[in-house]
Amino acid sequence: MKNTINAVLAAITIALSVNTTTATEVKTQILIADVQDSNSLQAVFDNYFALKDALIKSDAKTSSAKATTLLASIGAVKMDKLKNNEHNVWMKVMKKMTSDAKAISSNQDLKKQRETFKSLSKNTYELIKASGASQPVYYQYCPMADANWLSKEKAVKNPYYGSSMLTCGNVVETIK
Questions:
Q1: Burial letters for 65-90: b for 16+ Cβ neighbours within 10 Å, e otherwise?
Q2: What residue stretch is flagged as signal peptide (predicted)?
Q3: What average pLDDT does the segment 91-120 reach?
Q4: What is the edge-to-edge ordering of all strands in the sheet holding 147-151?
Q5: Does 19 score more than 70 pLDDT?
Q6: 5-19, 77-91, 158-172: the lowest-pLDDT one
Q7: In this structure, what DSSP letter does residue 174 have?
Q8: Taking the model in full, what pTM does it have?
Q9: How far lies 134's CA from each of 49, 50, 166, in Å?
């Protein structure tokens, strides 16, 4: 009888500890999901910067792959989690950003990718202005391409001409 009671108590203890562990894991997963939801625009921005870096290197294949990742992050944005001003801008730019990311992802022509990147940069700029940046972001301009882009670095690295005119351009605005 004593062994049976001990076995039942051990089973209850194990069941309770499993439930506590499961509850802790569920809470952690919920917190991670909340952080991911609130940072869904950050994922869009990060993937935009990755695409820009691939264009700087004049790597059409990587640019295409980075645009595919950007497209996925655009699709993952939870509109109901956005602040009112972010939501308003998001509704204005989302379709064009999606279209631009698709065009870049499905194209291996670097010149066409860069031309489409102009529009993508314009819309990303509007979005990051509404959202605010977690760190300084530099809005840069190239007079030769007559186009802007966003960068995490103040030093100009031109995505429109790559190594042929890497430092062509200047910072026109710092977004904080």
A1: ebbbbbbebbeebeeeebeeebeebb
A2: 1-23
A3: 98
A4: 147-151, 137-142, 170-175
A5: no
A6: 5-19
A7: E
A8: 0.78
A9: 14, 17, 26
